């Protein structure tokens, strides 16, 4: 392998820049050329590339987002699109790539590898932590810290005004952010897609909280929660059934995806980048680099895409006990 391409695709996450930096510097260390591919598969199709050396990635380990930019490409889902991408890579003499992203990114990578036998290693980058084969995806730890920080602030208002807040957090179909940030911020209830706790339980829990002397409450709701009601409908429901509550809603949105990566994410990104490049050099392909029991490991991309990343059920019980 003489030239490796690196790209970020799908939703951005803090730590992507640190991972790009690691890929570029590991290539430089092993005297391999490195090329940045702009805007994920979109830029690959258009041949939007930039040569990167060790110095091109200075000063970015602490930056959120991705300087290579990211996109979700419709054209790459077509055979013609993938053929164009392959032609562009070949024209630039790129003979392997590291792709940083989530589920959709890896699904695209698998199809591409099957069609063109192009060597690929994946690095999981998403705040959702919804990828099988790693305990942590890049950006998840930073997002948790951001969410906890914001909930702490909202709690100031909740307790000053004796209010109940429904706070919606991201995570797509997964409840990792809600569950962990909820426990970390001391939420009274946490609603996640993996366990439908039901509305009755929510009402019971709120009534119990009130009886036990609590004057304010925080309910963290994962955006993919399955109660069948979104945060605004939950507010209406409580207004109707428990008019004594003064309810507010806060949807945290994209602030959860931004910001400087935590130390954990920077270190993880650095470790993952080294492993991805060195595995490509050693002839490996079609694996995702992950972290399990604090060891860097690899999982076949196919399993990473098909497998389910389980939530930590122990945390549900911990949360129940903590909100006594
Ligand atoms: O996958 C990351 C994520 O932020 C999810 O948590 C969320 O559901 C989705 O992306 C939002 O996507 P977009 O930025 O396209 O609105």
Automatic annotation (TrEMBL):
UniProt record similarity statement: Belongs to the phosphofructokinase type A (PFKA) family. ATP-dependent PFK group I subfamily. Prokaryotic clade 'B1' sub-subfamily.
EC number: 2.7.1.11
Main location (coarse class): cytoplasm
Binding site for ATP: 11, 72-73, 102-105
Residues holding Mg(2+): 103
Taxonomic classification: Bacteria, Pseudomonadati, Bacteroidota, Flavobacteriia, Flavobacteriales
Function comment: Catalyzes the phosphorylation of D-fructose 6-phosphate to fructose 1,6-bisphosphate by ATP, the first committing step of glycolysis.
GO-annotated molecular function: 6-phosphofructokinase activity
Protein name: ATP-dependent 6-phosphofructokinase
Catalytic reaction annotation: beta-D-fructose 6-phosphate + ATP = beta-D-fructose 1,6-bisphosphate + ADP + H(+)
Keywords attached to this entry: Allosteric enzyme, ATP-binding, Cytoplasm, Glycolysis, Kinase, Magnesium, Metal-binding, Nucleotide-binding, Transferase
SUPFAM superfamilies linked to this entry: Phosphofructokinase
Pathway annotation: Carbohydrate degradation; glycolysis; D-glyceraldehyde 3-phosphate and glycerone phosphate from D-glucose: step 3/4
InterPro entries associated with the record: ATP_PFK, ATP_PFK_prok-type, PFKA_ATP_prok, Phosphofructokinase_CS, Phosphofructokinase_dom, PKF_sf
Cofactor (UniProt): Mg(2+)
Binding site for substrate: 126-128, 163, 170-172, 223, 248, 254-257
Leading EC class: transferase
Phosphofructokinase domain segment(s): 3-278
């Amino acid at each position: 392998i003489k030239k490796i391409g690196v790209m970020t695709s799908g939703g951005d996450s803090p730590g992507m820049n640190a991972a790009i930096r690691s890929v570029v510097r590991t290539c430089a260390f092993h005297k391999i050329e490195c090329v940045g591919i702009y805007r994920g598969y979109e830029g690959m199709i258009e041949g939007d590339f930039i040569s990167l050396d060790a110095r091109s990635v200075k000063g970015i380990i602490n930056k959120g987002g991705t300087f290579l930019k990211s996109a979700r490409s419709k054209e790459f889902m077509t055979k013609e699109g993938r053929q164009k991408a392959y032609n562009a890579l070949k024209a630039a003499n790129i003979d392997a790539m590291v792709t940083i992203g989530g589920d959709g990114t890896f699904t695209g990578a698998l199809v591409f590898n099957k069609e063109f036998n192009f060597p690929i290693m994946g690095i999981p980058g998403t705040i959702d932590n919804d990828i099988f084969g790693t305990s942590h995806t890049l950006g998840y730890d930073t997002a948790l810290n951001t969410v906890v920080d914001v909930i702490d602030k909202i709690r100031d208002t909740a307790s000053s005004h004796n209010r109940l807040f429904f706070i919606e957090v991201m995570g797509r179909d997964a409840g990792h952010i809600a569950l962990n940030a909820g426990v970390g911020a001391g939420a009274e209830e946490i609603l996640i897609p993996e366990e439908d706790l039901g509305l009755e339980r929510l009402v019971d829990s709120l009534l119990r909280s009130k009886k036990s002397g609590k004057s304010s409450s925080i309910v963290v709701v994962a955006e993919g929660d399955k109660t069948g009601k979104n945060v605004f409908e939950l507010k209406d429901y409580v207004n109707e059934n428990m008019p004594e509550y003064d309810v507010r809603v806060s949807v945290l949105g994209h602030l959860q995806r931004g910001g400087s990566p935590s130390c954990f994410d920077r270190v993880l990104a650095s470790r993952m980048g080294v492993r991805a490049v060195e595995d490509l050099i050693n002839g490996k392909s079609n694996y995702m680099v992950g972290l399990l029991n604090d060891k860097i490991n690899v999982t076949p991309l196919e399993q990473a895409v098909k497998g389910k990343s389980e939530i930590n059920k122990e945390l549900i019980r911990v949360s129940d006990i903590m909100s006594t």
